[in-house]
Amino acid sequence: MAIIDVQQVTKVFGPDPDSVLPLLQQKWSKERIYRETKHTVGVNEVSFSVQPGEIFVIMGLSGSGKSTLVRLLNRLIDPTHGKIEIHGKDIVRMNAEELRQVRRQTISMVFQKFALFPHRTVAQNVEYGLEVQGVEKKARRDKALESLRLVGLQDWADSLPSQLSGGMQQRVGLARALANDPDILLMDEAFSALDPLIRKDMQDELLELQETMKKTIIFITHDLDEALRIGDRIALMKDGSVVQIGKPEEIMMNPANAYVERFVEDVD
Ligand code: ADP
Ligand code: MG
């Protein structure tokens, strides 16, 4: 069974999002909708499902709707239309307690800006989520050290973030996301701020880590090379819609339309 199931999800931003749904049905473009109604289409009729243990890449240019989709999956925002199921449960219908449970145990997020607390040690940063949940001190320290070991930073536990390089800080961000042992990792442009070489290293490390941890990973990127390296499958987005979903080789060999073809031509 799919661990994530997204069915015909649409997100419109503005004062009366529902009023825009019929216009989308009539195939109005995102530009026209903005011009005539001042609503922004974030995500338009997106459907996909993800299997446990899969690395599912969502890729597209800036503004194509990737972050909106991630925020929907985490229910930081509600869809205007459509259904999002995690482990077979509709997250839009969950009450506050069920949602808290999902955020604690099921989904973790890794951000592009590592968002580490500068005055807390590396281990204290990794522990933060567990601390908020009320996990007692010894247990959360143990968990933090275990997470840091996974990303190769066990010797840096008591350093401050500023003593670490950008790549290492991002590994702390990853360790923090792993600390509550989630089933699903959401990584929104997690490597995009890193230098190209460090970025390649991080991609390799993530793939290596995935061999043992077997998480379900939603990996967002605007970089096709990265998508092809990392993804078991890739969903390519344009203007809020998914234009193609497939394995890297399928996208390369059989681009669904001229837009995907142009993307693929640029790969070295
Ligand atoms: P990406 O992550 O692919 O760069 P986003 O999901 O951030 O794209 O944005 C998709 C579209 O939704 C953009 O046109 C953006 O301006 C719009 N958008 C995102 N968040 C909001 C918001 N809170 N209010 C209005 N428009 C938004
Ligand atoms: Mg984004």
UniProtKB/TrEMBL annotation:
This is Quaternary amine transport ATP-binding protein. The complex is probably composed of two ATP-binding proteins, two transmembrane proteins and a solute-binding protein. Residues 28-264 form the ABC transporter domain. Keywords: Amino-acid transport, ATP-binding, CBS domain, Cell inner membrane, Cell membrane, Membrane, Nucleotide-binding, Transport. Its main location: membrane. Its EC number is 7.6.2.9. One of its GO terms (molecular function) is ATP binding. It catalyses: a quaternary ammonium(out) + ATP + H2O = a quaternary ammonium(in) + ADP + phosphate + H(+). It comes from the Bacteria. It is a peripheral membrane protein. Belongs to the ABC transporter superfamily. It is found in: Cell inner membrane. The chain holds residues 1 to 268 of 408 of the full protein. It is an enzyme of class 7 (translocase).
